[in-house]
Amino acid sequence: MTIRATTLAALAATTLALAACSGEDAPAGEAAEVSDETLAAMVSDADGLSVVSETLGDAGLAQVFDGAAAYTLFAPQDAAFEALGDFGEDLRTDEQRPAMVAILRDHIVPGYLTPEDIGHAIEQADGGSVKMRTMGGHTLTFTRDGDTITVASEDGASASFAGDALRASNGVAVPLDGLLRKVPAATASQPT
Amino acid sequence: MRRIVTAMAAIALVTTAAQAQAQGNGRGNDRGGGKPAEAGKQGGGNGNAERGNRGRDDAGPSMAQSARGSDNRGNGNADRGNANVDRGNGGGSERNAARSVERARSDDRGRGNDNRTVVIDRRSSERAVVVDRRGGPDVVRVAGFDSIPQRGLINGCPPGLAKKRNGCQPPGQVGRDDFRRVFDRPDFWGLNRLGDGRYFYDDGYLVRYAPSGGILGHIPLLGGALGIGNAWPSYYEPVALPDYYESYYGLGSYDSYRYADDVIYRVDPETAAITSIAALLTGDQFAVGQRMPLGYDVYNVPYAYRDRYTDRADANYRYSDGYVYQVDPTTQLIAAAIELLT
């Protein structure tokens, strides 16, 4: 690891002192308990996320969520894949793993986002929606209707938060009731 | 379109130069030879990163990409802390996978206009340290992926497909239509830069066909040809990532990882077989003094750093690709880039 001798600037004190303050704009979300486990471990142990967990393991992505870098995974529940019928089954095959991985990349955003952070941002935002980049090169849009937070992808697919978020030491997993990619089962009634 | 050459070595040199500036004495030659970019790093730091040959980049859908890695490194043509590795005349217009972190003038912090700051936060210490870099150029890039090329299509038929398709002929309308409709588009794979055309997803590759029917080129896909256990394709030469990324993502030595299209892979140093995925990156570009990219509306600082970087009236904090950025809530200008070292 790089060792850097540094020059402490007055800016440091200013920046850090202010950073330490919890301003009125501070997002909520710190009250919930955060596990010492990594995100990979928590997803692996979670009920109803076995499809995602298996995919992460098979594709070598689990290690991404075992490291120091923080990610937030919007994890479609198993029922979301089951609802896709044959397409959902095919997605889980080895042959279609690249497609499944591509889909899941658009369910991952950088950093540590709790539902409370997202809800707070929506409240503060003009227009009632906020956007986050995905690791798949697209953008997700979050909105809220009452207590329900919904997330939509660029191609028009959408899903809602479903169940408690998993708050790991290095990231968050938020269960979703659907996929954030328009796939055949979803496009049947919504032709592109 | 991509830029081919520019200067990984230059950036590395700039990185080193900038760090050395912060360190006083610098780190010296701590890596030895064998790694072109690193060799560049050890040089005197003279050079110019602005002149890469980017011209042959993106010659179309079937451009050969195999040579880019080595093109990018080696010459150590980095400038004297000028850090102006901006990519001159490349003519490439697409989003670069390259992203850079520029530490630039630290605006209005009472130090005049010639300050530059880099914040290095170590969780092992009680407080982060702001490195104040006085003097020197207007912009100092101390870390970046700027010269690491986006991968374009590789000429010809993918390995294995020639046999499968009896001479690498287009497959025709085989397979399920619903799959074809979804997967046979670069956009699905986050590869919009490949442009319009006739594509087909097959056997771990996205393949592009010519209007006349022949195969123009192919690109290996994460989870497919770039899947666990597969050998890293020889036409994707290794690239050296900035030291900070090696540290932050725990990548190990230069020969133990590979990079392509916003993904860092771990490989077996002996066999170059892919062993796991080390990191996913957004590919967004960040520069101190410039606007924060769109798509960072939500506070997302890693949990371990939330006590230090909390949004407040005059500063927001957003995380991406290993850095926390301090952002002016009003102007959305990036005020500082914060490295998160443990």
CATH uppermost class of chain A: Mainly Beta
Compressed to H and E, one letter per element, the order of chain B equals HHHEEEEEHHEEEHEEEEEE
Helix count, DSSP H or I runs of 4 or more residues of chain B: 6
Q: Helicity of chain A, in percent?
A: 25-40%
Number of helices of chain A: 8
* Broad structural category of chain B: alpha+beta
Average pLDDT level of chain B: 64
Largest sheet of chain B: 5 strands, mixed
Rg of chain A over CA atoms, rounded to whole Å, is 18 Å
What is the ordering of alpha helices and beta strands of chain A? Answer: HHHEHHHEHEEEEEEH
- Total of domains of chain A: 1
What characteristic shape of chain A results from the CA principal axes? globular
Query: Main β-sheet of chain A: number of strands, strand sense, barrel status?
Result: 4 strands, mixed
Calculate the mean pLDDT score of chain A and round it: 84
Major sheet: arrangement of strands of chain B: 3-2-14-13-12
The residue fraction in helices of chain B comes out at: 10-25%
Structure description:
- The complex is a heterodimer of chains A (192) and B (342).
- By secondary structure, chain A is of the alpha+beta class.
- Chain A has a single domain, classed as FAS1 domain (Roll).
- Chain A is 32% helix and 20% strand.
- Chain A has helices at residues 10-20, 39-45, 50-58, 78-82, 86-91, 97-105, 115-124, 184-187; strands spanning 71-76, 108-110, 129-133, 139-145, 148-152, 158-160, 166-168, 171-176.
- In chain A, the strands form 2 sheets. Chain A has a 4-stranded mixed β-sheet with strand order 2-1-8-7. Chain A has a 4-stranded antiparallel β-sheet with strand order 3-4-5-6, covered by helices on one side.
- Chain A is globular.
- The termini of chain A are far apart.
- The model of chain A is unreliable at 1-26 and 186-192 (pLDDT under 50).
- By secondary structure, chain B is an alpha+beta fold.
- Helix content of chain B is 13%, strand content 23%.
- Chain B has helices at 8-23, 36-41, 68-72, 161-164, 177-183, 243-248, and strands spanning 100-104, 115-122, 129-134, 139-144, 154-155, 198-202, 205-209, 215-220, 257-260, 263-267, 274-280, 316-320, 323-327, 334-341.
- In chain B, the strands form 4 sheets. Chain B has a 5-stranded mixed β-sheet.
- Chains A and B meet through helix 1, helix 6, strand 2, helix 7 and strand 3 of A and helix 1, strand 2, strand 3, helix 5 and helix 6 of B.
